[in-house]
Amino acid sequence: MAARIVTLRSPIEHEGKSLTEISLDLEKLTGDDALLAEREAQMENGGQIRGDPLLSKAYVLHVLSRASGVDAAVLKRLRIDDFDDLIRTAQVFFMGMG
Known about the structure:
Blueprint: E1 4-14, E2 17-24, H1 31-44, H2 57-68, H3 72-75, H4 80-94
Antiparallel strand pairs: 1-2
Helix pairs in contact: 1-2, 2-4
């Protein structure tokens, strides 16, 4: 399946360029990526993720970073509506609906 493209409503500057869209290759990810994303999210949240990791924005953020090749710190700078669009795109994929 092709990578999913999320177009940003409010582009941000990244590496001297305007980032207007983010390409997510979620299909390339492995269990190792999931475990590393979980570990990174736990480090940011006092050592734990409460509840289902797929509902944790911190966990999904690190999954998205791996799927897009864009550092999580850059993704955190997105406007909230763009950030939530990315989160929902990943969650829909993981629920098998996308």
